[in-house]
Each structure stands twice: as C-alpha cells, then as structure tokens.
Amino acid sequence: MKFIQQAYKGDNQWWSYVLTFVLLIFGWQFIGVIPLLIVAGYYAEDMGSFIDSANDSFATLGIDSNLYLILIILTFIGGLLGLLLGVKYIHKRKISTLITSREKVDWESVFLCFCFMVGHSSYYAGNSLFFST
Hints:
By secondary structure, this protein is mainly alpha-helical.
C-alpha cells in the first residue's frame, strides 16, 4: 500500500480531525505548560511577581536559560502526545502509519539520514568557524 493511500485508513470523519486538533491544542497549551508553571512558581517570590512575570513569558524570574529552553520544548512534547493520542484512539490508526507505509519502520534508512544530516551540519558549521576568523 502506498503512503498516501493510508490516509483512507481509520476514522476519517470531519469531527475526528476537529477533535484531534482540540486534543493537540489542549496538550500543547494546558498539559505541556504545567512543568513551566511549576518551575516559575518555585522561582517567583509571591503571586504578584508570578503574574507580572507571566506577561513577559517568565523571563524576569531568573530561570536558567537552558532550563527555560527545556521547559519550552516540553510544551511541544505535550502537543505531540495529544496528536499521537488523537491518531491512535480517535482516528483508530497505528502511529507508524504517520511515518511509513511499511509494516515496520526502516531504522537503517533513519540512521542513514541522521548521519547525513550530522555530516551536512558539521560541514557547514566547520566552514563557518574556519572562514569567520
């Protein structure tokens, strides 16, 4: 079966797409932001400073920039989990049908692409460092 033909598998009613989209937004904006709120609540002195810092995305609380990056990325992981739950339970499709039309994921091809991207990125980063001095 071709990859595009897999779109006809599962439940493809209009309401299933809307419900999956709502689940994605809920996972992204409400579930994924919980770790950020916990850390921001820990760094805030009181509720007033918490609310004031929420207006500028908690940048004034003094959260370490690496920790803040991880917390922001976690919000998108919440959205991804919402999407995967929607595909599995609302659309009644296997998660692997989003990636491949085969029965199993071809990990050798994934590894080859990963190595190609690392080599490509390393080449351009090395050229950038070499020619910038």
